């Protein structure tokens, strides 16, 4: 098995899915904490929910018509008709610097182009800051298109977009 092999999260066995949930929750400060039912709900409605086994990395994205109740997703929905929204991308600490995030994003870009979507969008924390993610997204061709303070979450984010 290649470290760059991308698989659907839905095809992972129970222990693999649990490991991916644990990976997400180890990075809850940057993403958000998920319970198992919430994780499964995200997977069920996702446009793309992929991973690099064995819980090395994951990416979950929704398209513009996705059944996702989230203030950041709504922000993009109010402004754009066609998009793929990256809800979360997480790379395990032991696997950082190996190009996994880039590979997962390139996979998503290919899927979005096949679906004739015009852009890929996401948000990155400004407060608390996430400078590594900011630098990564800039290298991937994303540009800022807005900002928001997420009340009740103690976060400020900026919204990013990459035209396809």
TrEMBL record:
Pfam family, one: Acetyltransf_1
UniProt keywords, alphabetically: Acyltransferase, Transferase
Molecular function per GO: acyltransferase activity, transferring groups other than amino-acyl groups
Annotated ranges, domain N-acetyltransferase: 7-164
UniProt name for this protein: N-acetyltransferase domain-containing protein
Species the sequence originates in: Limibacillus halophilus
InterPro entries: Acyl_CoA_acyltransferase (IPR016181), Bact_Acetyltransf (IPR050832), GNAT_dom (IPR000182), UCP028520 (IPR016890)
Top-rank lineage group of the source organism: Bacteria
UniProt xrefs under SUPFAM superfamilies: Acyl-CoA N-acyltransferases (Nat)
């Amino acid at each position: 098995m290649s470290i760059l092999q991308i698989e659907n999260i839905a095809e992972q066995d129970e222990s693999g899915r649990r490991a991916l949930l644990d990976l997400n929750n180890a990075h809850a400060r940057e993403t958000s904490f998920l319970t198992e039912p919430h994780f499964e709900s995200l997977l069920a409605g996702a446009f793309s929910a992929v991973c690099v086994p064995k819980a090395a990395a994951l990416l979950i994205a929704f398209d513009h018509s996705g059944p996702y109740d989230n203030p950041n997703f709504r922000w993009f929905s109010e402004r754009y008709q066609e998009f793929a929204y990256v809800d979360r991308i997480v790379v395990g600490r032991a696997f950082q610097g190996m190009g996994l995030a880039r590979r997962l994003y390139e996979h998503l870009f290919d899927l979005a182009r096949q679906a004739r979507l015009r852009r890929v969008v996401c948000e990155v924390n400004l407060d608390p800051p996430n400078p590594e993610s900011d630098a990564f997204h800039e290298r991937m061709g994303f540009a800022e298109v807005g900002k928001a303070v997420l009340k009740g979450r103690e976060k400020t984010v900026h919204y990013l977009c990459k035209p396809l």
